[in-house]
Amino acid sequence: MAEPILEVRGLVKHYPLTRGVVFRKQTGAVKAVDGVDLDLPAGGTLGIVGESGCGKSTLARMLVHLERPTAGTIHYRGEDVTRLSGRALKRVRRNIQMVFQDPYTSLNPRMTVGDIVGEPFEIHPDAAPRGDRRRRVRELLDVVGLNPEYVNRYPHQFSGGQRQRIGIARGLALNPEIVVADEPVSALDVSVQAQVVNLLARLQREFSLTLVFISHDLSIVRHISDRVGVMYLGRVVELGTDAEIYDHPTHPYTQALLSAVPVPDPEARERRERILLGGDVPSPTHIPSGCRFRTRCWKARERCALEVPLLEIPAEYRIWEGPARHPSACHFAEERRVVPPGGEDGDEPDGSGEPRR
Ligand SMILES: Nc1ncnc2c1ncn2[C@@H]1O[C@H](COP(=O)(O)OP(=O)(O)OP(=O)(O)O)[C@@H](O)[C@H]1O
Ligand code: SF4
Ligand SMILES: [Mg+2]
């Protein structure tokens, strides 16, 4: 694995719950992110998957320094950025940019596309000399497959997919090393989703970006990621290459998620086993003791309530080389192929972008 560009250790974000107006008293906390460890190798794509509310966006906001963690560290090129402030933080933030989920609300409707894409240059004036900014913006529009002549148009004059391209152009303006894309296609029509995913995949390769691609859609994540982290209730519970996670999952939660992915091939669909999870996701204010997945896990035993399983290679897979040899936070991790071979959505991204309009 390449040298990590970002090392996340024990990352925590707890939002306090308070009562009272004059004397505010903390009565508990929403444990949105509750101890995440991740290495981000330079130049690859890490997919993060998990159900709604598991802490994906909170993690994303901490990675790009829009929010300070409650605890834990984020080392960027060896430096703990959670301790930085002022100019030092600004220098780091320039290299780690975010693409937001909703292209309808994340673009200011009163600004032209040129001003939106060029806005980062106002904050980091040294990134492009004033006289050169217009040219840079047009170049960025071209890179994301938009007509540079549209530079004076407003967001409402674009489709959802085109707006997301504008958001991506803005994310690339400062030539960042890392881009965190939080559900970048969830608000788009299915027909447009593949185009935007393909665009991100192309940009990742072309600019050697390190991409974090967050989605609740496992099929989309598989298309674009070379490594995948599965999140449950504020923690990463399984981490591996796309083949390790999709074809050789060892964590019961990953297996349950995969068993619910639509399978296009009718024959493979017949052979696929469905794992139906009981109960609801517990509230992040009351996380179960021991393994946080135990209230929904069909394999749960006494040990699961007593001991927190660590995200590490399970003991029984440590001694042999094989696809099950990857970190999994389960005391009883066991390889189980849920999606039969040929059962995945076979459409490979073709790298083409949306035709220019
Ligand atoms: N500012 C905040 N104050 C209090 N609680 C918050 C705040 N932001 C997020 N949360 C809570 O933290 C938990 C994780 O939220 P988050 O938005 O990170 O989840 P998510 O995985 O991105 O979900 P989705 O897939 O729906 O976008 C949720 O229970 C959410 O209600
Ligand atoms: S540790 Fe126990 S409860 Fe948790 S996933 Fe493994 S078997 Fe299930
Ligand atoms: Mg989210």
From TrEMBL:
CDD domains per record: ABC_NikE_OppD_transporters (cd03257)
MF terms (GO), sorted A to Z: ATP binding
Region Disordered, residue ranges: 334-357
UniProt-listed SMART domains: AAA
Signal peptide start-end: none
ABC transporter domain sequence ranges: 6-258
Classification via SUPFAM superfamilies: P-loop containing nucleoside triphosphate hydrolases (SSF52540)
Gene3D superfamilies: P-loop containing nucleotide triphosphate hydrolases (3.40.50.300)
ATP-binding listed as a keyword: yes
Pfam families: ABC_tran, oligo_HPY
Keywords: ATP-binding, Nucleotide-binding, Transport
Matches recorded under PANTHER family: D,D-DIPEPTIDE TRANSPORT ATP-BINDING PROTEIN DDPF-RELATED, TRANSPORT ATP-BINDING PROTEIN
Entry's family note: Belongs to the ABC transporter superfamily.
The protein, known as: ATP-binding cassette domain-containing protein
Organism: Streptomyces yaizuensis
